[in-house]
Design a protein that fits this description.
CATH topology of the largest domain: Penicillin V Acylase, Chain A
Strand order of the largest sheet: 1-2-3-6-7-8-9-10-11-12
Shape: globular
CATH architecture of the largest domain: 4-Layer Sandwich
Low-confidence stretches: 1-13, 32-55, 155-172
Helix content: 25-40%
Distance between the termini: 52 Å
């Protein structure tokens, strides 16, 4: 009985999660096979006068190398469309990224559209990914809390992730999709967070937001890199019916938003919406053992709700505070008011957040901790991949070195590559330009490099993505 209570209580649904079963069921129904078991002279004088020597603050602990790849700028290519969805790809070969648009209707409709458009990928991803994780189960046990390690040892990976394992004993593939979505709840990954604006940036008219994912660059899920763009129906009654119950505030509206992740992952690990609110995560490792819980709303589902329903930092903070929180993570939360003057102090906002079941702390750049290895920098909020406060000086030295010159290209070329962060997914959001720049790891690329932070980054125009029209119904008559 106790086992039933534990496994079923892990999934205490958010407003999104209330209708997640609809989404996932339709995703699977649309993918029915998921149920099947020359030398030149040099003028040295000219050379001399062109050379400038700058003193660098770069710390020797920065062991990476510069990423000298050009940023890929191309329009997404349409692959297929159905009545309420479109699939595009951008990039080539091992740097291909799926861009999937799904349109409501309801979450049921959007789930069906995704499953229909990504059927073949999901058929390959699910068994391949779980086989990979089962082979790494010993390493997995070392990364999770003792209670979860016990479940893994007793029930195996699928059992520990099963929401109703002891009730149903089912072993059908749509449950594997659900389990896939709880993996981030077990393994929160290292990762880095950066928010930079104002005096720290080259333009001083933008907000730059880094969400780097440091996990397993060799995991086969990298082959299913996907940006999912949700165009929900804001009047869908299911949102309003449950919103106050979980977030203690009145439901107002729903926004078009993008999840940066992988096929089949419906929660958010990094996300951005049409009103320029963005979220990213990193692990929060604490010495206290009593600030986390495995009973509540999985953080990926909470982040998805926040991005879908928030139009400001205030709304987002209220949702994060009022939800039934679980494990401990750091968050980078940003907002950019596009129609405000950049001189308006309220035009840009970015907070670093410590989020757990029993603690919640929000930091601006002014009140972050100030240590020799983590100096306070005006208009910068940052956390490196290590436990905080970090004893590693690399990130701080890089930010000092490039202070007032930060832009997307500099972050890709000089920051994440030298810090060696973002080995699995490297995402930079430029709020002022309304663009995302991202790279995924490529474990199957024989030429390498494998790590995302060393690979080609692709620019995606978020204005165009959010404005992508739904297919015309007459095209499918």
């Amino acid at each position: 009985m106790e086992r039933t209570q534990i496994s079923s209580s892990i999934f205490n649904p958010t407003p999104f999660a209330v209708i997640a079963d609809e989404y996932l069921d339709q995703l699977v129904r649309a993918s029915p096979l998921l149920f099947l078991p020359t030398m030149m002279p040099i003028n040295m004088n000219l050379l001399f006068f062109r050379v400038k020597i700058f003193k660098s603050n770069l710390d020797p602990s920065c062991k990476g190398k510069l990423n000298t790849n050009e940023i890929l700028r191309e329009e997404p290519r349409l692959v297929s469309s159905i009545l309420n969805g479109k699939r595009f790809v951008v990039g080539h070969n091992f740097d291909t990224i799926n861009i999937v648009h799904v349109y409501g209707g309801t979450p049921y409709d959007m789930g069906y559209a995704f499953g229909k458009l990504m059927s073949e990928d999901l058929q390959q991803l699910v068994p391949e990914y779980f086989a990979y994780l089962e082979n790494k189960i010993e390493d997995l046990i070392k990364q999770v809390p003792p209670l979860i390690a016990k479940w893994l040892a007793e029930f195996g990976l699928r059992g520990a992730l099963d929401l109703n394992y002891d009730i149903t004993r089912l072993n059908i593939h749509h449950l594997d999709i659900r389990r896939l979505n709880l993996i981030p709840e077990l393994i929160k990954a290292a990762c880095s967070v950066l928010g930079a604006w104002g005096e720290s940036t080259a333009s001083s008219t933008t907000l730059l937001h880094l969400r780097s994912l440091d996990w397993d660059e060799k995991a086969p899920i990298a082959k299913y890199a996907t940006v999912t763009v949700y165009h929900p129906n804001a009047s869908y009654a299911g949102y309003a019916d449950h919103f106050h119950e979980y977030y203690k505030q009145k439901y107002t509206t729903s926004h078009t938003f993008a999840n940066f992740g992988y096929a089949g992952l419906v929660g958010s690990i990094g996300a951005y919406n049409e009103v320029s609110v963005g979220l990213g995560q990193k692990v929060w490792i604490t010495t206290e053992q009593d600030i986390t819980s495995r009973l509540g709303n999985p953080w990926t589902y909470v982040l998805r709700d926040v991005i879908q329903f928030s139009n400001s930092l205030d709304t987002a903070l209220s949702m994060l505070i009022n939800t039934h929180r679980t494990c401990s993570v750091h968050l980078g939360l940003g907002e950019f008011h596009r129609n405000s003057s950049i001189n308006d102090n309220n035009s840009v906002g970015f907070l670093g957040i410590e989020y757990s079941a029993k603690e919640f702390n929000a930091y601006s750049w002014e009140d972050m901790y100030n240590t020799p290895n983590h100096p306070i920098l005006k208009d910068i909020v940052y956390w490196d991949p290590h436990p905080q406060p970090s004893n590693h000086p690399c990130f701080g030295s890089l930010l000092i070195d490039h202070y007032s010159h930060l832009d997307v290209a500099t972050i890709i070329r000089n920051i994440t590559s030298l810090l060696e962060t973002g080995n699995t997914l490297n995402l930079i959001l430029d709020y002022g330009d309304n663009a995302a720049y991202l790279a995924y790891s490529a474990p199957d690329d024989p030429q390498g490099p494998i790590e995302a932070f060393n690979r080609v980054h692709t620019r995606i125009d978020m204005t165009k993505l959010f404005a992508e029209p739904a297919p015309h119904s007459e095209d499918f008559a």
